[in-house]
Design goal:
The complex is a heterotrimer of chains A (328), B (321) and C (356).
Chain A lengths: L7 H13 L6 H10 L2 H18 L1 H8 L37 H37 L1 H16 L2 H14 L2 E3 L2 E3 L3 H28 L2 H8 L4 H37 L11 H8 L7 H29 L9
Antiparallel strand pairs in A: 1-2
Chain B lengths: L1 H28 L3 H9 L5 H10 L6 H13 L5 E2 L4 E2 H36 L4 H14 L3 H18 L17 H35 L2 H9 L3 H29 L3 H7 L4 H10 L3 H29 L2 H4 L1
Antiparallel strand pairs in B: 1-2
Chain C lengths: L4 E16 L13 E14 L2 E5 L6 H8 L7 E6 L2 E2 L5 H4 L6 E4 L13 H12 L4 H14 L16 H13 L5 E5 L7 H18 L2 E6 L2 H7 L2 E6 L2 E7 H6 L4 H9 L5 H6 L50 E2 L29
Parallel strand pairs in C: 3-8, 3-9, 6-7, 7-8
Antiparallel strand pairs in C: 1-2, 1-4, 4-5, 9-10, 10-11
Helix pairs in contact in C: 3-4, 3-5, 4-5, 5-6
Amino acid sequence: MLKGPRSAEDAWEEETEQAAAIQGRSPWQLAFARLRHDRAAMIALGVVVAIALVAVLAPVIAALTGHGPDVQYLPPIGTTIDGLPKAPSAHFLFGTDDLGRDVLVRVAYGAQVSLLVGVLATLLAVVIGALVGLAAGYFGRVVDTVLARVIDVMLSIPFLLFAISLASVVSVTPIHIGPIVLQQGLGIVVIVIGTFSWATVARIVRGQVLAIREKEYIEAARSLGAGSWRIIVIDVLPNVLAPIIVYATLLIPLSIVAEASLSYLGVGIPPPTADWGSMISEAQPYYQEAWWFLVFPCLALIITTLAFNVLGDGIRDAFDPRATGTRA
Amino acid sequence: MTRFLIRRLLLGAFVMLCVTVIVYLIFYVGPGTGYVARALAGREAPPQTVALIAHRLLLDRPWYVQYGHFLSQLLHGNLGYDYYHDQSVNSIIAQAFPVTLSLAVGAAIIWFTIGVLSGVASAVRPRSLLDRGATFTALVFYSMPTFVLGLLMLELLYYQLTVHGLRWFPGSGYTSPTQSIFEWFRGLILPWLTLALVSAAAYTRLTRTAMLDVLGEDYIRTARAKGLSEARITFRHALRAALTPVVTQFGIDVGSLLGGAVITENVYGLPGLGYTAVQAITNQDLPVIIGVVIVASAAVVCANIVVDVVYAALDPRVRLH
Amino acid sequence: MSSVSGEPLVRVASLVKHFPVRGARRRRGSEREVVHALDGVSLEVWRGETLGIVGESGSGKSTLARCMTRLQEVTAGHVFFDGQEITSLSQRRLRPLRREMQMIFQDPFGALNPRRRVGSIIGDPLAIHTKDSGAARKRQVQELMELVGLNPEHYNRFPAEFSGGQRQRIGVARALALHPKLIVCDEPVSALDVSIQAQILNLLVDLREEFDLTYVFIAHDLSVVRHVSDRVAVMYLGEVVEQAPADDLYRAPRHPYSSALLSAAPVPDPDFADSRKQIVLVGDLPSPIHPPAGCRFSSRCPRQRPRCTVVAPMLEPCFGDPASHQSACYYPLADGETLSGGEANAHLGPIDTEKP
């Protein structure tokens, strides 16, 4: 068996072996370690987990307080005698709303909707966007031209206007496009938000792929006889994953806000489902008499969005420490 | 350069064409012909009116004929007719546009100035108290949905002040500048602030990141070694390079805004494009909805073209692509 | 040197590769502007030999390597591998052939995917072309690692944890995985420190003996090429200007350009280096978009005469050279003659003790 010549390099190798018996960390592990040391991000992660817990345990909260999310308590328990919401008390920790429902329980159930839509819409956007971006960036020429135009068109349509128009039409009658039927509900909100978010993901991915495509290791893979999709998945994707993850984490709060905006305008999840956006919209006329009705859903929304944004920033810094201006 | 411009315009036209196809498919074809005619006629209309409208709009013809008609109308600048308000859609949009324009331009100036300046200040002293403070504030505002901030401002700056006798701002409504510039201004301050604060936050972050990238470049280090003052380096050299992504984003954002800042207009009751659209939606007023969506898309496409052309004028490499 | 036998393993016939110039204005009626990367290159590589290809940047050597392995599509001409014409094969039909020809790349930092583990990188060809199980692949990969002088226990490390020389060894191991017939080395040591270069070169030579490999070795450094090659081809601006067995070329270069290249190669003895006359070529490299008529080297050649700019000279033996030594020049250098008129064999430096 042939051995390489003994040299300074071999000596160096032995040195690093001892040192590296402890090291040998992958780029992922390094990023993870940096994230763990980012206190703000860790706190944000804790908040996100807490919110998720609240969402999951919403039925438990309902059971504990004894109030369901849709149960309207008649005066004088649920509302004052004049029909106004009741202030926070031992009985209703966050007070009641204009229909005598428990605000605390509704906020908890609202978390379910927000998180569900946020995560699902982001997932949809990322999957579609990554596929389109990878194909456009790697295959180039015709495929790229066509897909890039599609991305352009998608980015030109104003999201909110289109979404509310679509939702309003759908609330009256389902839309049939060929075999596809669009109906009111959680599904269409997720689809609409996802449909308007994938284009940005695709653009980011495409840019990254174009940068990677000319690298020698891609050429090497081609010279080995690897098929296009194998190269895309095994060689290109791992190098593109980092920006995708960063953007996805920042996309979640954007989706949550989008969903809340839709509900606020009355075209999101239909009532009586508890939803922060619609709660805020319902609370508007009462903001003078019943501040709690408006404040708690607002706080919930702000805190959730803030937590995800801080976490997203932390993840971005973990993958690319230069951006903060700190030592690497 | 002219070739680039022409190519870019053709691309824009193509994108608009695709948009019209999508809009048409979703709003005319999707819900079925019964819905369209009824929606156009308005909810109260008798069946004869509905049938008449159906016939006039060629709803009994195959869909490609309808689309052809739709497209040719569009190319003649006719966005349709609003039976509900008995006005042409063109005039409705023409009335609403100046409002949106006032809102968009005013807010844009404010957010660009605040955003870029605070972003530069942050980048120049990274990790300092100023930086952390600015970054945190930006983060908080960035995480606030526009309607939440709007409601907050209404509550604090309008309601609380008014209750205490300081009628500084009107609660809602718009006054045209032709009537009274002062009132026009007064009515727009709160909406401007609402829109601007949220966007400024995004621009602070964007500028900060871009500036940090540029400040780390070798040629900045060379400039310092040459003895240039920090201020000169920051503003004349670094900022110029860093502004490119910011300006690109700015162009796109303003374009989107010109299509109607839906939420802000609704919170403050400003009768701009966004407000008109929401009203139309409540009334199921299809021509107006479609008209606004198309105008808004056109605004975005135009803004993109402007941004691309400016970019190409500044950076010749882009033209060769 | 090693034995040379039978049919050429690789035959390149009149290979032409033109790259379109991006952004160039299209003049009415005339053709699009192109960069003439390769203009009619014909070569043969025999089984078991090492063909060195030298030339300066822009001579087309890297393009030639890529066209040979069909990493680039050719504009015209043919490439034959093991008797089979491969230029017109579909990608699918080409795949099994890729087992037989592999490449080693120049940049040790760019040629390995930074996000993949080394074991996975080396095992890639096995994963693509064989149905071996993961465990079997791992075993083979570790054998290969040991073969090229790497510690097999570093199987799960990332490329960033290796030095430049080690990474190049990884590249070699990857190329070797399927025991190909041909390995094309595209400037494999150009990016390495001089002390490491020797190790990698020696590794390549040892492996050639062990596995009966055929190399096409591309470089711009003549002393490097000399150490490993049996035959050498000199390229200039997309054409081969001289081909010869290595010894013949170094002893008696016929083409003025070869002579100039050789004179520029540094020699170890500084006194001798000062004393010999350097040939400095005057003039600029012509544009590859508009190559000059006639001999492409004529604009810089001190021996240029009117005939040179009219029709390009053919590649053929001169002065009674054997068929193996060909050059494309109307006024080739005779034995002992140099461009500057200085000492003959000055480029060889003091007595050569390296050759076996």
